[in-house]
Amino acid sequence: MSKVVHWMHRHETRMFLYVNQRFRHTILDGILGTLTHLGGATATIAVTLLLSLFGKGVWQIAGIQALAALAISHIPVAIVKKLYPRRRPYLVVPNTRTGRNPLQDHSFPSGHTTAIFSVIVPFVAHIPVLGFVLIPLALLVALSRMYLGLHYPSDCLAGAVIGSGAAAASVALWP
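Given the sequence above, the corresponding structure tokens read:
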């Protein structure tokens, strides 16, 4: 088992370094440094709360489902971060490039990725054509977390699964 874990960690670190170091460009610094905030608490709570309160029809329903998914999805994130205190890659991997003021809490799973996926899934479920914009946007938020040196690929993958799962449950359980 130890060999498998070591092999996975080595390859994941290579993928992380590829995104973190090979794609470097001033324009990407600005774009991904801004896009990453779309998965933050301010953006996700504001958008879902505003649509829940002021949206009409399907927009309001999707907003309520997204708000519920956002709240529900962060319970397992908080629990897993406590149970599996994985250090952020910039603290472990030498020569990692970071943005300004990197986070200090635990890395696994990515809260930003969880949030963005929990928010987009209800909108894509109700208005499928939005998937052409929202899914790539969510993937860019996940990519930005690695680009900024804050998360490993598995942190982002776990966040996407948790967020999507909470959102799917929210959509399925809403009358």
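The mean pLDDT is 91. Try to locate this feature in the token string yourself.
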